[in-house]
Every structure is written in C-alpha cells, then in structure tokens.
Amino acid sequence: MTEPADAKAVRAAETAVAAEAPDGAGASIRAEHLVQRFGSGRGAVLAVDDVSFELDREPARIVSLVGQSGSGKSTIARQVLGLQRPTSGAVTYGGKDVLRLNRKQRSEFRRNVQPVFQDPYAIFNPFYRVDRVFWTAVRKLTDLPNKRAADEAIRDSLRAVKLQPESVLGRYPHQLSGGQRQRIMLARIHLLRPQFVIADEPTSMLDAQTRRGFLDILQDFRVRYGITTLFITHDLSSVHYLGGDIMVINKGRIVEQGAVAEVMAAPSHDYTRLLLASVPAPDPDQRWTERIDIGQIR
Amino acid sequence: MTTTLSAPKRTAGRLSLLRRSPKLTIGILLILLLVAIGLSAPLVAQAIGGGQDPTETAAFPRWLKPSGAHPLGTDQYGRDILVMVCRGVLVSLQIGAIAGLVSTVIGVIVAFVGGYLGGFVDTVLSFFTSILLVVPTFPLLITLSAYAKEVTLFEVGLMLSIFSWPFAARTIRSQVLTLRTRAYVDLAKTTNSRDLEIIFKELLPNLLPYVMVGFATSALGSIFGLIGLEVIGLGPAGVIDLGHLIFVAISTGALTLGAWPLFVVPIILLTALFAGLNLINIGLEEVYNPRLRSVSGV
Amino acid sequence: MSDALTTTAAASVSDGVATGTTDPAGAGRDLDVILDIADLSVAYATGSGDLVAVKDVNLQVRRGEILGIAGESGSGKTTMAATLLRLLKKPGRVSGGTAQFFPGSAPEGVDLLAITGNRLRRLRWSSLSYLPQGSMNSLNPVARIERQFADVILEHAPKRKAELPTLIPRLLQQVGLDPSVARSYPHELSGGMRQRVLMAIAISLEPDLIVADEPTTALDVTVQRVILQTLADLSRDSGVTIILISHDMGVHAQLADRVAVMLDGAVVEVGEVRQVFHQPQHEYTRRLIESIPKLAGAAVGVNAGHPVATGEDDR
Q: Where are the extended beta strands (E) located within chain C?
C-alpha cells in the first residue's frame, strides 16, 4: 500500500552492497532444532519447540521473528546470543556451537554478533555514564589503535544515528530519553559493525515516531554495512515497514515463514491470518466487521 | 511521563542524598559523634590524669561523686569513669568495625559466588547460610567464650563475625539475584566481559548500598552480641568495652553507691550507637529501595 | 485497584462544604454533555519550579460516546485521567479549572475536582469508574476474583449483598468470561482475562462514565482485538460513556466516536473520528497518523469458515 519513502533508495543501494561486502567472510548463524524447556514435571513449560532457521551473511537481510508474548521468541534471541543454554539443539556460528567456542572463536563470535535489547532503561548500568557502553566495547571488541581514534569513532557513530555527541556523552542514563538510549545502542552497533544484529523487541517501548526512526536506522545499517538483523517483535506493522523475511512463531514453533510481502498478502497459516487481522487499522473506514473468538477461556 | 518528571529529581540525587533522607543524616551524625568521643579518649585522659593513667587502680579515691575534676566520678577502684567510657566507646566501635568488615567480606563473597554462578554452588552456600541463620547464636557464643579467656580485640571481632556474616550474605545475595538478570549484565556478556569483571564492575557498584546495610547490620549484631555476653559476666577478659562497664556497674552495685554515671552513661551511648546504625540502615534502604520510596510521580 | 481508590477517598475525611456542586451556567448547558472539562491545568512541583503537565484543557464528553484521547507518552493524557479520577499524586496538583460531571444520580452536576470525602466515595464506581492498564498490580494477588468484586460492590452498594451470587457470574459473562473465573486467583489468569476481570469490575455498579487508561497496552494484538470488541459491546449495550486513553491511533480508529489529540499537555485537536483521520486539522495529528506504518494486508479478514483456536498464553 504505502511504501516507505526511502524504499526505492534502499532497493537501489542493495545491489551496491553485494559488490562492496568483504569477500569470503560468509559465516552464517544456524539454529538447529532448538528446544527450551523451563521447569520440570507437571509445571514444565516448553518455550521453544524444535526451531530451526538460518541467518545468512550475504545478502544482508532483515529477518523478523514475529510472535506474541510467551511465544518463545525472546528465548530464541538469548539462545542465539549464547546467553541461554538450549535444552537440546544448538546455535552454530561458522559451523561451531556458540556455547563451545574457544577463546579466539568466542571473541570472533562476539565481534560479529551483537544484540539490541528491549528495555532501553535496563540496558544501561545506572552506576556509570553512558560513555562506558562504548569504551567497554572499544576495549573488548575493536582494534582501534588509540584513545583518540576511539573517541573519534564513537562520535562518528553517534552522529550516524542522529545523536549529538555533546548532548549524550558524559551523561548518566537516567538523563536521557528512551529513544536516545535506544539510539545509543544503535551507535554501539555502528561502532562495532557486526555481521549480525539480534534485536529483541527493540522498539516495543518507543513511541510511534521514535520507532520509525529506529527502524530506518536498522534498514540503513543493512544497506550501508551489510548487517543482517534478526528482528524480534510482536508488531506486525514494523515488520511490514522493514520488509525482508518473516518467521511467525506460535507457542514455541515456527508456523510460517517467507518473504514479508508474500506472507502478508497471502498468509497460509491460520495463526498468521489471525495476527494480521488483529492489527487495528488506523482508519475509521476500515473498522473490524467480523468478530473473532480466540477461545480464551481456560 | 514518569521519565520526564523523575529526571530532574534524580539528577540532583547523588549529591542531595543526605538532604533527602533525614534518617540517614541523623544516623551518620550520631556515629560520627561517637567516633569523636572515642577518639578523644587520649586527650580526656591527659586532661584528667595529667600525665598519669587515670584508669589505673587507685589513681584516685574510690566512688567520687561527679565533679569538675571528674565529670562522671570514679569507680570502686578509684578509676576515672569518663576516661573509661571514652575508651569503652572506642573499643565497642572497633569491635563493630572488625566484625562488620569481616562479616561483610565473607557475606559479599558467598553472596556473589552463589548468587551469580547459581546452580549447585549456590544450593550448597545457601544451605550453609541458612543453617547458620537458624542456629541459636547466643548459647554458642557463650560456649565459645568459655574457651577464649585471654583474647585480643581482633580475635573477639573475628569470633563474633562467624555468626553475623550470614545476615550480610542473605541481604546481598537476594540483590545479586535480581541484578544478574538485568539487561546490562547480558550486554556485558555479549561484550565479552569475564564473570569476574561483571561481578566487580557491573554488579558490585550497584550493590554498595546493600553492602553498607550488611556492614551496619553485622556491626550492630556483633557489638550487642558481645554486650550480651559481658552483661552476664561471660565476656572475654581484657576487652573493656561499654558492655563491660555496664557489667562492672551492676556487679558492684554502683547505682546504690551514687555512682550512677557508670551505669547510665554507657547505656545512653549504647542507645545512641544502636539508633545511629539502625537509622543508617533504614535511611539507606529508603533511598535505594524503590519500593519503599514514597513518591514517584504518576 | 479498589485499595488505591478507597485510601485516597479515606484520606480526605471532611465532607467539603464548598463543594461547588451548583453550576451557575448549569441552566443553559447542553443536556448531552456528561463531563465538561473547563480550563483544566495540572502542574508537578519539581526542584526547579513547576512542570505543567496539563495546560488549559477544554473538553466536553458527550453522553454515551467513546471519546478517544490520543497522544504520545508525556503528552499529559494519563495525568489528565488521574486528575479526573482524583488519583493525582503529589507532587502533582490541579492549578486551575473545573470538571463538571453530570451523572444520573446527580443531574445538576458536580465538580469532580472539588468534591471530597463521602461524596467522592459515593461517586466512585457507582457513577465514575476506572479501567486501568491491565497488569498484575491492578488486582489483589491474594484474593479470589469473586472477593475483589464483592469488595468493590459492598463498599459502594452494601444493600446489593444478596444479589452477589447472581451478579458476579452475570458480569463475568458480560465481558466474555466463564463464571468459574470467579473462583480463581489473579495469577491463574492470562493478561487478557485479567483485563476483562477489571472491565467487569469497572461496570459492576453500572457507572455513567468509565475512564480507560491504555486498557490494551500490555496485551498481545489478538487479545487486544477481543478486549476492544468487548469494550465496543459494553458501550453499545449499556450506553456507558467511555473515555479511552491510548497512544495507539489504530485503537482510536477502530473504537472511538470522537478523538482528542494531546500534545505537551494541551488538546490540539478534537473531532469526529473520521474527520480527525481523514482531514486532520493540526500538523501534529497528521504526523501521528502518518507515523503508523500501514499494513498492506490490513483488509485481510479471518477466514470465517475456520475458527482459530490459539488460546492466550499464560505468560
């Protein structure tokens, strides 16, 4: 319907990316039969139920993992980041299990796979100025030769996400807005230039306008730096705005996947249809006419 | 809305901590006053004894009434009570400091190792902590003191801390448990920080208030544990703290002989000590525990 | 929820003398208006002076309508709701204005900002009720649902005690819940079910006006649709007036009869929902509507022949 204004520019630049990308660095992330069970016995919850997918380095894409709360999508994000040990199955990076990497491999993995988390408030240690987020990253994950080069790179990255370096550096997290904090996380990504970004509900706590700016930056990163993003969300309109691929998850299982445009135009699974039908259209002339019953009782 | 409103309040937070919590301020002032009294002991001794030790046996006549030369009078051996009280305050504070420090260090280590690593280690440590928490410590202290007649101040502090560290450990562990799931800990992990770095740089600074609460609680417990022993005449010989003075007052019938200061003054000082440490405890909790914070916008 | 309300009510003991119940302009007022907010301003006292959260708001709520209040976080919409419900906490305070409320029980009108004590207490729930954002905090975690109903109902209408056994199941059914939910504890229910319980409590005393503050924000999109459906049913069946506060323009488009848009504490635009969406008068409204990416397949309906059984998730 309404195509994002800069969609054309995105498409045009896409071809350029393929040529520009470093050759050979094609390590991909594979999720292989991931299962996550929490608790045991009668109270056990199967949060992730045999989920497999692959994130490729080239061509850079945005892959959205869409599901409602409790669908297991955040658990998958933690598994992919190596923060949560799956009950069975594995996440591999460049063919190796991310939980069994040696020191060198882990450092390589961390350099190339970076998160953006949901809560822009909890992501900062309240004890420190926000600068520390960059400096720890510089120290641990980059080869910047000296302090001056690092400082320059940090400022560049802040400007790249449309933040004034002077207005955020030296501040404490509580002095910044949610949108600013989430942009700082994007600046951190810009600084590190990973191959993959695992973004777990990064926009769910942002206002509509701020959200759109955030999504534009993700798209920009893909086009400019060839960053593949696993975008985990419950918000179908963001997914539509971003384009790329979609995986729909319900109760720990991926029920449908494919290109966003195709899935949204012709969803093949009932659950996908239900999700799409439930998004309130921002148009009083497109009010819901039929009733849905999701059999919620017990 | 909450964010914009709370921002200016928290900006001023770090500096006006004391202004925001009168309890904390009064507590700190009380403790400082007691430290000043304790530290003034040599000066007071000089002023009253004039070069000689005013607490030597028969330095002055027995049971002198309070007067200009002896503001609090003398005891049954002719020792100056004011000097004894000042020294007693210092000894009590030292016992509290030693026992508090040792308990806090043990408590912090146990809490962090258990709380952060979790699993089997945590189960064992928690079990051990809980056992010590439910063991009736007072009879055990009595038994221990029977074996320790000639002990130094430091040894007494150490002995007392054996029983007070579980309190510190429990307070801090529960906080570690809530903090270790914070997004900034995950971010540190994905920045390739090591566990020890996360414990010391991410978690510990945020736990300082709780560490201080643990310290104050342990110090308080130790000081009063020792007084409990001394009042019933089981205190270690050679350690003359405020509790010992009270014991002397009771056992010699000082009150009936008109030497009331020997009984009353240590009790007043102990009350001040108790009030001071408790006010610090409550004040810190109020400032740092958001659930106890009374006002927080809409 | 009921706790918060009763404590606030109990805090002000005196039954105010100058309660401003008589409206000098009352004779000429439009009978269709149930709530007339005039020049309402609310400020928060901060260390560095006052922070104005609501600025000179003039707004008429018509009887029986669903009035949507839109705006982003920080626009003052939640503060305004709290003010109308008299739940505004320090350091916030009303710095000016009135809010004349014309419930069935007091057709001559009362100023919501001036009444205190017992009068306020009587008005709450029975004339004016509150549907908060659905979260665990809104229900008492250690009481069964039926007791939470009973608490609210008996507090405000003690003589209805005999009716309770039939009233509670009826209310639950009215919001699409099974009557057996009455025996549950809040933690046994999903987010959507808890939100419906809150809705049932809000309508239990047949109020004239419900203020719903982001009632679906914490919920999944499918659950949100069902909740909105239920709200629309309530409005249609019982004629209750609803003030619906939401940051989601989609929600307003689906549900509201009229929409008021707030920006920095002021109402910048009020109008019929179609007019606001199709011919927004204010630049900000236009931006607000534009910032929602529209779904290509918005017209995709649920396959009517296939009832979709998904079940709400419990977490």
A: 33-46, 49-62, 66-70, 92-101, 110-111, 128-131, 209-213, 241-245, 258-263, 266-272
Query: Is A215:A242 a contact under the CB 8 Å cutoff?
Result: yes
C 58-97 → A contacts, CB under 8 A: 72-73
Cα separation, C23 vs C214, in Å, equals 31
Name the E strands within A102-152.
Answer: 113-116
The answer to whether residues A89 and A32 touch, using CB atoms and an 8 Å cutoff, is yes
Measured between CA atoms, how close is B204 to chain A, in angstroms?
A: 10
Tell me the chain C residues in contact with residue B297 when contact means C-beta distances shorter than 8 Å: 44, 89, 91-92
For residue B200, give its domain range.
Answer: 21-60+71-288
Assign residue B243 the CATH number of its domain. 1.10.3720.10
Token pair in block for residue B213: 């609460």
The residue type of B206 is: N
Residue whose pair of structure tokens reads 């709360």 in the numeric block: A69
Place of tokens 């939640």: C78
Residue B285 falls in which region: left (phi positive, over 0), alpha (psi -120 to 50) or beta: alpha
- pLDDT surpassing 90 at residue A106: yes
Q: Which of C46, C73, C74 is nearest residue B8 as measured by Cβ atoms?
A: C46
Rounded to 5 degrees, φ, ψ at B66 are -55, 135
Q: Is residue B188 part of a domain?
A: yes
Does residue B148 belong to any structural domain of this protein?
Answer: yes
Q: How far apart are CA B235 and CA B146, in angstroms?
A: 9
CA distances from C228 to C176, C223, C273 (A): 12, 9, 16
Residue in this structure with the two tokens 């009020």, named with its chain if needed: C270
d(CA B148, CA B156): 9
ipTM of the complex: 0.84
Quickly count: other Cβ atoms within 10 Å of residue C284's Cβ.
18
Smallest CA–CA distance from B183 into chain A, residue: A123
Q: What is the 3-state secondary structure (H, E, C) of C70-85?
A: ECCCCCCHHHHHHHHC
The answer to whether C71 and C80 are in contact (CB under 8 A) is: no
For C229-243, write each residue's pLDDT tens digit. 888 988 998 889 999
Q: What is the pLDDT of residue A97?
A: 95
d(CA A209, CA A205): 12
Q: Which CATH class is domain A15-20+28-277?
A: alpha beta
Q: Which residues contact B256 (CB under 8 A, 6 or more apart)?
A: none
How many distinct structural domains can be found in chain B?
1
For testing the chain B interface, which of A119, A124, A125, A132 should be mutated: the one with the most B CBs within 10 Å?
A125
Token code pair at residue B254:
């000082």
| Burial of A198 (C-beta count, 10 Å sphere; 0-12/13-18/19+) | buried
Question: How many CB atoms sit inside 10 A of residue B212's CB?
Answer: 16
Residue C139 has pLDDT above 80, yes or no: yes
Tokens of B86: 């000042």
Domain C2-290 superfamily per CATH: P-loop containing nucleotide triphosphate hydrolases (3.40.50.300)
Long-range contacts of C250-253 (CB under 8 A, 24+ apart): C250/A279, C250/A280, C250/A281, C250/A282, C250/C292, C251/A280, C251/C68, C251/C216, C251/C224, C252/C68, C252/C70, C253/A280, C253/A281, C253/A282, C253/A283, C253/A284, C253/A286, C253/A287, C253/C277
pLDDT for residue C19:
38
In Å, how far is B84's CA from the nearest CA of chain C? 48
CB A111 within 8 A of CB A188: no
Per-domain boundaries in chain A: 15-20+28-277
Q: Is the peptide bond before A59 cis (omega within 30 degrees of 0)?
A: yes
pTM confidence score: 0.75
Give the start-to-end residue ranges of the domains of chain C: 2-290
State yes or no: pLDDT of C300 exceeds 90.
no
Handedness of CA A172, A175, A177, A183 (dihedral sign): negative
d(Cα C218, Cα C175) in Å, to the nearest integer?
18
